[in-house]
Amino acid sequence: MATSAGDSSILEEELTCPVCLELYRDPHLLPCGHNFCLPCLRRLKSRSDHGRLRCPECRQSHRSSANWQKNFKLANIADGFRRRGQSERSAQSRSDPSHRPAEVRCDYCPGDGSEDGKGPMAVKTCLKCEVSMCPKHVQPHLELPAFREHPLVEPLNDMRKRKCLEHDEMFRYYCMDERLFLCNACTIEGTHSGHCIKTLKNTMKDFKVYLDIQMHKTNRKILKAEKNRLEQKEIERHNKAYRDDTDQHLEAFRETSIVHLDAFLSSLRESVSTYDSEQCSGIQQNLSRIAQDQTRLQEVHSGFETLLHESDPFQFIKDYNSSMKRYQKRLRKPLFFPDEPTVDTEPLYETMEGKMGEFIAELRQHASTLISTLCELEGGDGEEEVDDDEDDDEESFDDDDDENESDAEGEEEMRSEEEEEQHLTESEDEEYTPEEEEDDEED
């Protein structure tokens, strides 16, 4: 599906006239080999000087009086692609109501001609005439040569937002330096001279490349957060195993001295439970912090994914400018990395040792044996795992080296990306401050 969509996008780009930025309508060929819509060539000819016409693509000069040859094969391909796109959009609108455009009525039909009194639904909007038309009134635009240069798009109900207030023309370009939408007149008058100006379609393409990079960074952080969660789960499992072993020893001791040691065992269980609660409370706090990191990164990931799926250049850039700074600020917030757990059984030992003195002398030996066993469980597991830990340490050193190398490469890659993408965003990758964290909590 993604490959098909990418191929369709490449084909559409090849079938787009460089002058009007719409699919070719009646394309003609210049002697230099470049194709343009016939109305676009006529418009260029009317503006040419000294009977010479300069190709907008290669800037090669040609005689204005030369006969331009129609490219019939290219015209057929463009018409077929246009019809296929219209049928696919119509089928998608019928099958999925969530993809249907907002209700836009025909500007030519009276409101009282329909059942709801609002006029029939529009099927196309002409960006040049700035009107929306129903199937009946759109026919002249599709059939008459006079309307061939008029760009038709899906019905729009926000035409005023897409027009330049100064020149009353549709936005077709975007100034990367000033982050402004521009019409044709804005680019000619010179107020943006020397600025990086791109078409809306190319701007969306550049922004999506940048979003792909941010998506990759987000995915890496999500993987690190998941790794932290799994490590904490392993610690939690280890503590649970310790608690289970403790219960087994206590149960064995209870069976041999049930008469004399019921009260003592209750105090031992209370001590072990207190110790375990202290251990688990820190783990639960760590898991909560990690869950917050995952939620925050998943929200950024979803935001990026939503932007990448946006197909309307205007709406995409508008959403990008309004949300990108917030997403970047959240990405700059460092991940929470828990401290290495420390196991200290000395307080537990002292508590049990003090309670043991309350029992009668004949039970002192049995109680001492039990307490020693309970306190050695944690330390004993550590001794058994020394050899394994040494091997794991060697592997971890290798992993750390690989991770450090990958981090260094990643930092170098990120620095080069930031240099290449300075025209896409003015925000810098500064340290995440407590003030920004408060802003995130408010968001």
What keyword list fits this structure?
Herpes Virus-1, mainly alpha, E3 ubiquitin/ISG15 ligase TRIM25, zinc-finger, 443 residues, Znf-RING_euk, three-stranded antiparallel sheet
Q: Any overview of this molecule?
A:
The chain contains twelve helices and eleven strands. It is rod-shaped. Mean pLDDT is about 75; it is low at about 380-385 and about 425-435. It has a three-stranded antiparallel beta sheet with strand order 2-1-5. The chain is mostly helical. It folds into three domains: about 1-90, Zinc/RING finger domain, C3HC4 (zinc finger) (Herpes Virus-1); about 105-155, 30s Ribosomal Protein S14, Chain N (Irregular); about 210-385 and about 395-440, no CATH class. Helix content is about 60%, strand content about 5%. It holds the Pfam family zf-B_box. Keywords: Ligase, Metal-binding, Zinc, Zinc-finger. One of its GO terms (molecular function) is zinc ion binding. It comes from Anabarilius grahami.
